[in-house]
UniProtKB/TrEMBL annotation:
Example of a GO MF term: lyase activity
GO CC terms in record: periplasmic space
Gene3D superfamilies: Chondroitin AC/alginate lyase
Keyword annotations of the record: Lyase, Signal
InterPro entries linked: Alginate_lyase_dom, Chondroitin_lyas
Protein name (Swiss-Prot/TrEMBL): Alginate lyase domain-containing protein
Pfam families to which the protein is assigned, alphabetical: Alginate_lyase
Domain (Alginate lyase): residue spans on this chain: 4-195
Database matches in SUPFAM superfamilies: Chondroitin AC/alginate lyase
Amino acid sequence: MQEAALAWHAGADDEWLNFARRYLMAWIKTYKPSFNPIDETGFDTLIDTYVMIGPSLPASEREQVRSYLQDWGWGYVTAIIHHGRRAIWINNWQSHRIKLVTMIAVAIDDTPLFDKARDLFRKQIQANIALDGTTLDFRERDALHYVVYDLQPLIQAALAARTRDEDWYHWTSDDGSSLANAMTWLLPYLSGEKRHREFVHSAVRFDAIRAQAGLKGYSGLFDPRTAGALVWLASAFDPRFRLLATQLASHPPLFISMCGQ
């Protein structure tokens, strides 16, 4: 769907537009949001698709998609407002919620929703990232895998916000925490200057179970190549990451073209 929309956006014929439209409308008419951000984080491709082909949809379909996304975005906001005290409301789960809310707000040009997304983003930076750049997920899981999984959606949100001329990447809390600082902390591990053995001191029992079961990535040394997409995203804000991005992944992920790159 996203690839078809990108092909059409790049000049391919309307066959690709119609393909993307059919898939987009099928999802809109069928899928009922669960508001589980880990399950739904991949729907950023649906949002991207709407951004690209929305102006070419029939007015009735365009309004149907817009209303659907608006309900989805505000549904996440409502869930966040009424959340409990579990860590999933400040760890990587929250980062993925914020990504979706921000992308939806930008896609449908909903200023009140965007304002709420900005507020949630700043609260997440304060709650999740320490002054030294370490994330809550690293402190709990002792794994760079989860640092990447935590920071990538936040940078996607920052890229979406940049289309509204706002710089969330360098925004700094009163405590001195920022997304930029977190990426600076991670950089030596991405470049290979430092190495890290994953999940050794994780406080989450399930991590040990997955490691014992031999699941890939839950033991051994962190592989910087798994962070290729994150580094490409960071390079949109910080040129220090550009050369490293090409070394870790030869091409940027498709969604970067839709996030202000």
